[in-house]
Structure formats: C-alpha cells, structure tokens
Input
Amino acid sequence: MSEYDDSDFEGFTDRILDPREISARETLEAFFNERPEKVFFSRQIEVMHEKDYIHWITNRALRDLVERGVIKSETRSLKTGGSIRLLWHKGYRYYKRDATHVIELVEEYADPNIGGALGLHGEAMVLEGFARSEFVMRGRGVREFRGKKWDKSEHDIDFIFERDSVPYGIEVKNTLGYIQRKEFEIKIQLCKTLGIRPVFAVRMIPKPWINELNKRGGFALVFKYQLYPWTHRELAKRVATELGLPVDAPRALEDGTMERFLKWHIKNW
Output
C-alpha cells in the first residue's frame, strides 16, 4: 500500500447504498465547487475529510462524482513507482501545470528513502514515548514471547512493552493511510497467540476498528499527524501547507498521547 494509491480497500467494494456516502458526495461536490482551479489526489481528499467520513466512504463518493462527470480524473505514473489518481473540477481547463506541481511534491515525499525514514522515525518516537512512561521493552520485531510462538504467517509485532506485569504488543504505522484490514486482523490474532494485549500506534484508524479493538482488549494510540524527523521539518511544512495534509516534525510524542494510554493501562491492568 502506498501513500498516494487509493486501491487498498479490499473488502469494501460492494455497492450497497450508504447514507454516509450520499452525504460525502454532496460534501465533496461542494468542496470542488469552492476550489474550481486546484488539483488534488484521492488519498489527499480522503485524509482531508476523515473527521467526517471513513476513507473508503470518501473514495466511493469520489469515484461516483467522476462517473457522473462532476469532477475530472486522470491516473499518472510516478518516478518512485506506482501511480497517482488526480482529481479536479470539471471546469478547470488549464489544470496541467497544477497537476505537475502536485506530482513533483508527492514524488519528493514518497521517495523510498523518505518513506523508510518515516517508518523508522515512527518506531523511534514510539520507543522513546513508552520508555519515558516507564514501560520496559521485552522484544522488538518478534513472533515469539515467553514460550508462545506465532507460526500462521511470517508477520511479527514491532515491539513488546511491559509495565505492572502486563505485556503489550505495539504495532506502529506512521502512514497517512489506514493499516490494511487484513494486517490489522492478523496482528490482533498474533498478540492473542502470544498472550499480549494489542496496541496500534498509528496516525489514524477507522472508529469502528477502534471500537472492535477495545472489545478485544486492545487500544488505539492515535497520533493524528504523520511524524517526520526533525531533519525533514521543511519538507513536512511544505506537505502540510501546500497539500493540507496532517504532518508534523515534533521532537517527541506529545505528552497527552502517552497520557491517554497510561490512563487506559491503569484502568485496565
């Protein structure tokens, strides 16, 4: 799954009419009408509207607007691999220059070196946050824990942290898009097999999944922002200001982020 591809919602391809999708269509049509000379890409629109609509609802609504001719769409290849789906108002005749600028910026932050740095940085921020909150690391990138082993796939869990004799399996996803549903389920099952509580440290996750995770004894540690290294703060600023995406380059996780987890831990341990 990439940060710009919109084809990652397996399991949500049915066309049952959803009232939320109807609402999303109206919202997005108004959004493009108010920005008649601007080019966007699908993941960008999904993230920008995630407070009101789950990503795949927005995705469906966008596809419908394209089919109805309300907005225009074009898929282009990227130098970094994969493709990007551009979207703009039907009345925007001279969109190509704007489209080129969007692609150039996406190619910059989607560069494999940047993507790798974001993944490692997300893990480093989580590691520091849990250590600062007096959790002890019991494993990193593991499939076995205290005599129990996950052998149903090659997946592992990013971290195992423990406090007050309660071990947690922490899966980190420092991405704009959601974790894949299949991976989400596998990681929960992995944690159950190892006898640890699942925790997803992510930029964002659908609310229904959060509720499901809570019912299964887990916790969603939501950042809201994609975390860039301090050395990439200028790129983060450009992505935030020019694309309107929730990215930031803090030196550490906000205190409130770990405080939410600590309160939950104390209440449930």
Observations:
- Residues 7-14 have pLDDT under 50 and may be disordered.
- The longest helix spans residues 112-132.
- Residues 38 and 56 are 22 Å apart (CA to CA).
